[in-house]
Amino acid sequence: MHSAAIIVSPISNFPPRTYLFPPAIQNSPPQFSAATHPLRKMAFLGGLASKIGAVASGGDHSGAGSQTLAEYMGKGGANVGDELVVLFTHLEYACKRIAALVASPFSSSLGKISGAAVGGAERDRPKPLDIVANEIVLSSLKNSGKVAVMASEEDDAPVWLADDGPFVVVLDPLDGSRNIDASIPTGTIFGIYKKLEEIDHLPVEEKSLLNSLQSGTKLIASGYVLYSSATLLCASFGSGTHGFTLDHSTGDFILTHPDIKIPPRGQIYSVNDARYFDWPEGLRRYIDTVRQGKGKHPKKYSARYICSLVADFHRTLLYGGIAMNPRDHLRLVYEANPLSFLAEQAGGKGSDGKVRILSLQPVKLHQRLPLFLGSPDDIEELESYGDVQQKVNPGYDV
Ligand SMILES: O=P(O)(O)OC[C@H]1O[C@](O)(COP(=O)(O)O)[C@@H](O)[C@@H]1O
């Protein structure tokens, strides 16, 4: 959390113009023939990549590999309404800028906390990269004219943007940025609500807060953008969860993973298990059991943990199993609700270890909680162990 007004010095190193495409390709020299022109090659590869993605995702692929996100949202597709299309166009643009930023030579230095040694709560302090990402999204959402309030993990309080904006956006602009030095994937997470018209008469501070504290059951859309070997935007508008891969040759997000269905059961658990000795007995027993293949699924589970929520969640959505953080660390409003909405829309579950995440009424903007996301059978089995929430949360150095 920080005040959005603090812009620290390394940002001045950030180039004023963010290139979406490599400069060499933007100004491609004339000696290339039509057949060997880099743009043509990239377009071909982009199309190929979309098709490969579509094949890899399994399931019904009608439209996969050719439909853009804008087309999907439009009248010939999900028909989500013009106002939401405008909002999304601006959000997409912001995420493309963040994608370019995290892939740039500046990301490593912007990813470092300046000043004192890192440790404990210090570890969670925002880095310049988080702050720039936050500013990028804020400016895009403001320009959209469609957002009344934006509540960001990086800000102490929600920001009121436009009286006539029909939507409320909650988000974590850049999750996992502590990994950026090692070029490990990062992500943006967002949730969208309708503005509560009935409280329009309240003072700005009050209505900003109440609009942002809506229950997850009121989400009209949510999504994440994964910045990895591919930049992938996964979204749900309340009718399934769909993945769109950024085609760098055109700048479009292309539908590559239509109607993602999480496997009912996986064989992977994802958790920071260096915390094993801080876990309650139930969670230890659960992990010990599935590791040995002695749970309801008679196979030994494997572990995968990137320590980057969007990446760990994305893998879980595709392969099944559980992605978890059993301590009070992740935020209900910005992370748990939007990702639980996506999990449920894909046939999965989001739980705090006891109850459905979406059933929780947020009481504080930056409320933290244990989070378990994944395959329905795995989540149910985990919950049956009862005691899975890590209550000891000493603050960790790394
Ligand atoms: O230290 P832990 O408990 O493994 O937490 C790691 C998690 O924290 C995060 O880095 C998010 O932390 P922040 O919200 O403080 O950035 C996730 O990406 C990751 O899943």
From TrEMBL:
GO MF annotation list: fructose 1,6-bisphosphate 1-phosphatase activity
SUPFAM superfamilies assigned to the protein according to its UniProt record, in alphabetical order: Carbohydrate phosphatase
Enzyme Commission number(s) of this protein: 3.1.3.11
Top-rank EC class of the record's enzyme: hydrolase
Keywords in alphabetical order: Carbohydrate metabolism, Hydrolase
CDD domains: FBPase
Domain Fructose-1-6-bisphosphatase class I N-terminal stretches: 79-258
Record family assignment: Belongs to the FBPase class 1 family.
PANTHER family named in the record: FRUCTOSE-1,6-BISPHOSPHATASE-RELATED (PTHR11556), FRUCTOSE-BISPHOSPHATASE (PTHR11556:SF12)
Name of protein: fructose-bisphosphatase
